[in-house]
Write a structure and sequence with these properties.
seven-stranded mixed sheet; 15 strands; 2 domains; three-stranded mixed sheet
């Protein structure tokens, strides 16, 4: 039997390239519903409210119940609402007077979710099947919460305690013994921090933060799903797939003239021979960051097209770049990675990326933009706004700021169909941002600008 297994040659049915996307590495969570049937675990459930605890990474969802269904007991629903809310007309769980939603609260099921990935099969650009993998940051199980029973029990205990205190006579003074706690060692502190009571108290101390739930058919959800797809058409071990001569040229680069391939404004000096030893995605990222605004033809001249064809260069370019009027600029999170701040006033990377995206959004619509308006709308200090503008634009001196490079015609070229595809995808991306930018502009026009944070307590 062993000899047969060793000598058997299994037929290869299909070869599917596998790519890895890191765009959702820190934000991708898998939600499981172990108490629901498989045919009920659908994404078409109506979410009335959603809450999160960012520090403890907990989620709470309020799923709407169909009170008009023949399977819903209206009498029991009213009784449960009365038991939870009582006769108090203050803060109530069920404003409709009946239990019209069910609460699901998360619990972590796996300690080390980084070992798991989410796979996404796609037929992108008619190139056949492709498997795209994204690293999972957490696997969470959603279970029903019976907080309405807890609230009813808490109110009953409080009422009994109030009655007992009113009937008990005033007690005589008693002697009190004072005890001092021992000094806590590092070992005992670590043991205490791992205890259930400590973790429970830590979770209860953090309030629930209300969030905005986006349905699966919304533009926001569509743009987030796009991040599961890696447009990088290059495997990690790219050097192993090269011909022998090209691999030797990378190891021992010959002296060549790269005077025409000048990268202006480089913040970090890197020779062209060293640049070509990088993976393709890193080459494109470096060129976009240092050239600030560059056309596709110019970028392909810098990259060795004998090693990488147009399809691979375009795939890497769309994964780290944004097209503006035929030219390309680097994505904002490349310049300002997460958990970093600006060099002048220490503005967080999240605000800097949002402000830079708004600037790119304005250049899509206008030839010139005003620095003062950008600062007012984004609420970013003027120094940071100037820093952002200098990454893609220049001062005209009369009309305002304009792009570093003039528009490039994308029609009547052999790549016209690719340009149209890129424009369609980016139009969908900016449409998803319309509501956010419109809200920013509206808040900037209002005389009194206030930021509201909705927080609902667990009590």
């Amino acid at each position: 039997m062993e000899n047969e297994l060793e000598t058997s040659d299994d037929e290869i049915i299909d070869e599917i390239p596998v790519y890895f996307s890191k765009q959702l590495a820190d934000n991708l969570y898998v939600l499981q519903y172990p108490t629901r049937k498989s045919n009920e675990n659908k994404n078409d459930a109506v979410i009335m409210n959603s809450f999160v605890k960012p520090i403890n990474q907990e989620i709470k969802l309020e799923l709407k119940l169909d009170t008009a269904s023949r399977h819903y007991d209206a009498f029991k629903g009213e009784q449960l609402a009365i038991a939870a809310d009582g006769k108090d007309r203050g803060e109530r769980m069920y404003n409709s007077g009946t239990m019209d939603y069910q609460t699901f609260v998360s619990s972590k099921s796996i300690d080390n979710p980084k070992r798991y990935v989410v796979g996404y099969m796609d037929n992108y650009n008619k190139k056949g099947k492709q498997m795209h993998l994204s690293l999972v940051n957490g696997i969470i199980q959603m279970r029903p919460s019976f907080s309405h029973f807890d609230k009813s029990e808490s109110r009953r205990i409080a009422e009994q305690k109030a009655e007992q205190e009113s009937d008990v006579e005033e007690e005589e003074p008693k002697h009190v013994t004072v005890k001092f706690a021992r000094t806590e060692t590092d070992r005992s502190r670590k043991a205490r921090e791992k205890s259930f009571n400590y973790l429970l108290k830590k979770s209860e101390d953090e309030p629930w933060c209300e969030t905005v739930w986006c349905s699966q058919d919304s533009h926001q959800a569509a743009m987030e799903r796009e991040k599961l797809f890696s447009t990088q058409d290059e495997s990690t071990g790219h050097a192993l797939s090269l011909p022998a001569n090209d691999y030797v040229d990378i190891l021992i680069p010959a002296e060549r003239d790269f005077s025409n391939a000048d990268i202006s404004g480089a913040s970090t000096v890197c020779s062209m021979s060293k640049l070509r030893t990088f993976p393709l995605i890193d080459q494109v990222r470096y060129i976009l960051k240092d050239a600030k605004v560059v056309s596709y033809d110019r970028l392909s001249e810098i990259i060795n097209q004998n090693i990488y064809d147009d399809a691979k260069i375009r795939g890497a370019l769309t994964s780290v770049g944004i097209m503006i009027h035929g030219n390309w600029v680097v994505q904002s999170d490349v310049i300002y990675p997460p958990k970093t701040v600006s060099s002048t006033n220490g503005v967080s990377a999240e605000l800097m990326c949002r402000a830079r995206d708004y600037i790119i959004y304005q250049f899509h619509r206008n030839e010139f933009i005003d620095r003062t308006k950008i600062s007012t709308v984004t609420q970013v200090p003027p120094e940071e706004v100037k820093e952002l503008l200098q990454t893609i634009a220049k001062w005209d001196g009369k009309n305002g700021w304009q792009l570093l490079q003039p528009p490039v015609a994308t029609t009547n070229t052999r790549s016209e169909s690719w340009y149209k595809e890129v424009e369609t995808r980016q139009d969908n991306f900016w449409r998803a941002k319309d509501s956010l930018f419109a809200q920013m502009e509206q808040e900037a026009r209002s005389p009194r600008r206030k930021r509201k944070i909705s927080v609902k307590s667990t009590s």
